[in-house]
Automatic annotation (TrEMBL):
(2R,3E)-phycocyanobilin binds at residues 72, 77, 82. It is found in: Cellular thylakoid membrane; Membrane. InterPro entries: Allophycocyanin_b, Globin-like_sf, Phycobilisome_asu/bsu, Phycobilisome_asu/bsu_sf. GO terms for cellular component: phycobilisome; plasma membrane-derived thylakoid membrane. The keyword Thylakoid applies. This is Allophycocyanin subunit beta. It holds the Pfam family Phycobilisome. GO terms for biological process: photosynthesis. Belongs to the phycobiliprotein family. Gene3D superfamilies: Phycocyanins. Its main location: membrane.
């Protein structure tokens, strides 16, 4: 996993170039949002269980068929698995948020998800909606704390885009 800094340095190193204005601006942007990234991560860490429960509750209110007999979250075991997966998505999105780089999401979440969900018959639409619910809650929490910026939604959007593009 790389953060925004090591990723940028790698690209310039491979090209054998010094930082140009664009590279310097990207570094400055990352550093300018550094404290806010940490504050949002602290907020997520302090309220992760509630964020997951609330996102799941919203999902099951919108799509009650998931918790009815035959639904993918029907039975206590499947329901718990859904909550566990949402917690994974939130945790890895937090890592990517702090790093300012979505590589960890590709490496640790998206690459193996297709095979896992295919083998289990898990539909991705509800997972995508659950991640969107998590994003909305994190954004609301950050806004309430006076923190804003696209960096908050980037990891969640990367996850939903990656899941939406997969043919499951």
């Amino acid at each position: 996993m790389q953060d925004a800094i090591t990723s940028l340095i790698s690209r310039y190193d491979v090209a054998g170039r010094y930082f140009d204005r664009n590279g310097i601006d990207r570094l400055q942007s990352y550093f300018d949002t550094g404290m806010a990234r940490i504050q949002v991560a602290q907020m997520i860490n302090g309220d992760a269980a509630n964020l997951v429960r609330t996102a799941a509750s919203q999902l099951f209110t919108e799509q009650p068929e998931l918790i009815r007999p035959g639904g993918n979250a029907y039975t206590t075991r499947r329901y718990a698995t859904c909550l566990r997966d949402m917690e994974y998505f939130l945790r890895y999105a937090t890592y990517a948020l702090v790093a300012g780089n979505t590589d960890v999401l590709d490496e640790r979440v998206l690459e193996g998800l297709r095979e896992t969900y295919n083998s289990l018959g898990v539909p991705l639409g509800p997972s995508v909606r659950g991640i969107q619910n998590l994003k909305e809650q994190v954004q609301a929490m950050a806004t309430q704390a006076g923190i804003g910026g696209d960096f908050i939604s980037e990891p969640f959007d990367h996850l939903t885009q990656g899941l939406s593009e997969q043919d499951v």
